Automatic annotation (TrEMBL):
Signal peptide positions on this chain: 1-22
Family: Belongs to the glycosyl hydrolase 25 family.
Coiled coil, from the record: none
Keywords: Glycosidase, Hydrolase, Signal
Keyword NAD: no
SMART domains with a match to the protein in the record: Glyco_25
MF term (GO), any: lysozyme activity
Organism, scientific name: Oryzihumus leptocrescens
Pfam families reported in the protein's UniProt record: Glyco_hydro_25
Annotated region described as Disordered, given as residue ranges: 240-290
GO biological process, one term: cell wall macromolecule catabolic process
InterPro entries referenced in this protein's UniProt entry, alphabetically: GH, Glyco_hydro_25, Glyco_hydro_fam25_subgr, PGBD-like_sf, PGBDSf
Name of the protein described by the UniProt record: GH25 family lysozyme M1 (1,4-beta-N-acetylmuramidase)
Amino acid sequence: MLRLAAATLAAVGLSGPAIAHAQVIGPDVASYQHPSGFSIDWGAANATGGAAFAFVKATEGTGYTNPYFRGDFAAVHARGMARGAYHFARPSLAGGSATAQADYFVRVAGKLGARGDLPPVLDLEVTGGLKPAQLTAWVSTWLKRVKATTGRTPMVYVSPYFWTHSMGNSTAFRSYYLWVASWSSRPPTALPGGWSRYTFWQYTNAGKVAGISGRVDLSAFNGTVAALWALANGAPAPVPAPAPTPSPVPAPAPAPAPVPAPAPTPAPAPTPEPSPSPAPAPAPAPSPSYSELSRLDLIRALYQQSRSTLEPGASGAGVAAAQQVLGLPRTGTFTPSMAASLLAWQRSHGVHAAGVLDPRTWWAMIAVTHRQHHHRND
C-alpha cells in the first residue's frame, strides 16, 4: 500500500490535506463544479489529476436533476474511470416520499448495471424535521426500494455525527456500504452504526483536482484498484497502454579525420569583478486572507461546513466564513482569540458554549446570516 504525501498529490495535479494511507482517490461533483457553465476536463482529472473514480450528483428530492449529470457521467466512463451516482435525500413525512425519491433517482441514474458503475448512493445530510425513528424508517425504505429496482446494494454517505445524533446510531444498516464523511488527515477509527469498515472515506471538502474548477470533495477508496473495479460490477481494472517500441537507430556514418586546431592565442588577464553587494533580505510572506463573501455565498460556505467540527488550530475557507460571521479579520486560521470570540457569540445566541465550530454552531450561523439577508431585502 502506497503512502501518499501532500507533495505527491500536488505532483499529479490532485491536492488536499495529506492523508496517511491514500490508495485510490477520486472526487465527487455536482453543478457547483460548473460555475458559469465551466466544463470539467475529465481527461485532465484522470491523466494529470490521478483520479481513479468520480461520483456525480444525479438528483435531489423528486424535483431536481443535476443538469450536468448525464454529460459528466458519460465523460467519466469514457475516460476509463469508475463512476458512481448519488441522490441528495430530502426526507419528509409525506406518504410515499422515500419510495418516490428512490424511483426518481433510478429514472435519472438508471440501474447502474454497466461495467464500471459503482453502487447507487444515498447522500444523507438533512433530517427534514424527522425524528431518529422516523428518519431510520425513511432511509430503510429508500435503500430497499433502490436495491429492489436496480439489483445493486446501495451505499450510504453520512458523517458519524449525523448518524449518531439524527439516526439514533442505528445498527440496522450494516449490510449496506458506508461512505463516511470525516474531514481529517487520518481515517476515522470509530465508525457509527456498528459498521466495521468503510468503503469510501471523504477526507476533505477543499481538494484541488486538475481539470475541475475551484475546490472539490475528495474521497479515498478502502482497497486496491482491483478491488475498486470489482465493486464496479466486476469490471477489470484498466490496463495502461504499453510504451511504444523504439524504432532501430541507423549506425552513424564514420566521422571525418580531425583537422589540427590552430595554436591557441593567450587569453588576456581577467579584469577583477567588483565584490557583489549583499542580497536584500526576502520580504516576509504575506499572511493568507480571504475575500468577504456575499450573504448568499456566505450561507453556501457555512452549509458546506455544517457537518464538520473545527477546533482551534484548524485553517481554511470554513474558518474564514465563521470569522466573517463573527466580525473578525478573515485570516482563515482558528486562533485562541477567535475561540474566545466564538465562545461569546455562542453564549449570546443561545448555542451551547463550547468554543468550537460544530454542526449546531454552523447551523446557528446559517440561521443568523439568513435572517440578516432577508432583513436587508425587506
